[in-house]
Amino acid sequence: MLTLAVLISGTGSNLRALLEAASHPDFPARVIAVGADRDAEGLAHAEEFGIPTFTVPYTAYASREEWGRELAAQLDAWQPDLIVLSGLMRLLPPAVVERYAPNIINTHPAYLPEFPGAHGVRDALAAGVAETGASIIVIDDGIDSGPILAQERVPVLPGDTEATLHDRIKPVERRLLIDAVQRIATGDLTLSR
Ligand code: GAR
């Protein structure tokens, strides 16, 4: 059974989908802890599923490195097989990447390498593209630059706003994420940096 620690910053709708999938007895992975860099709304999903949570508030530390050391310590307490970034809106610090890579995956709301970074949906809209997408990647030292595990196109529709487009991308992300975790857990997918 693959054990997962999930890190979030926001509403945690993708986290919730993963919690629902992982609560099925046949699913080969379990969420053992959910962490956040702020008082994230999505932590409530973990609590509802009885999963322990931790918060390492980014703004409480003098530097990203200090924040990273505490985040690494919290993760080490759980010894997860895989870390899933499900809407964590911070760059993971080297302390965590060096310790856990390549066993860290990230879900991103664009068809990487198009539109990396914190505003993947907004940037795609601003560029006026007809299609964007969703991607699941392995985290490396760069910004959304690691190996792509899965991705799918999502059309941009006339009149789309950042919110409507993001709402159509998220269900695709959820499906890709759950499938990727399942394939990692069963050994169908091997991670490398
Ligand atoms: C997801 O779309 C995820 O891909 C994105 O944040 C959203 C979180 O939604 N992450 C990034 O943009 C990371 N660069 P959720 O909190 O509802 O799951």
UniProtKB/TrEMBL annotation:
What Gene3D superfamilies does the annotation carry? Formyl transferase, N-terminal domain (3.40.50.170)
Give the domain of life. Answer: Bacteria
Pathway(s): Purine metabolism; IMP biosynthesis via de novo pathway; N(2)-formyl-N(1)-(5-phospho-D-ribosyl)glycinamide from N(1)-(5-phospho-D-ribosyl)glycinamide (10-formyl THF route): step 1/1
Location of site Raises pKa of active site His?
Answer: 144
Chain residues that bind N(1)-(5-phospho-beta-D-ribosyl)glycinamide:
12-14
Specify the enzyme's EC class, one word.
transferase
Any single GO molecular-function term of the entry would be: phosphoribosylglycinamide formyltransferase activity
This entry's Enzyme Commission designation comes to 2.1.2.2
Q: Which residues of this protein are catalytic?
A: 108
Q: Where is the Formyl transferase N-terminal domain?
A: 4-181
Q: Which InterPro entries match?
A: Formyl_transf_N, Formyl_transf_N_sf, GART
> Which residues are involved in binding (6R)-10-formyltetrahydrofolate?
64, 89-92, 106
Q: Which reactions is this enzyme annotated as catalysing?
A: N(1)-(5-phospho-beta-D-ribosyl)glycinamide + (6R)-10-formyltetrahydrofolate = N(2)-formyl-N(1)-(5-phospho-beta-D-ribosyl)glycinamide + (6S)-5,6,7,8-tetrahydrofolate + H(+)
What keyword terms does UniProt attach to this protein? Purine biosynthesis, Transferase
Q: Function of this protein?
A: Catalyzes the transfer of a formyl group from 10-formyltetrahydrofolate to 5-phospho-ribosyl-glycinamide (GAR), producing 5-phospho-ribosyl-N-formylglycinamide (FGAR) and tetrahydrofolate.
Family assignment from sequence similarity: Belongs to the GART family.
Protein name, please?
Phosphoribosylglycinamide formyltransferase
In which organism is this protein found? Microbacterium commune
Gene symbol? purN
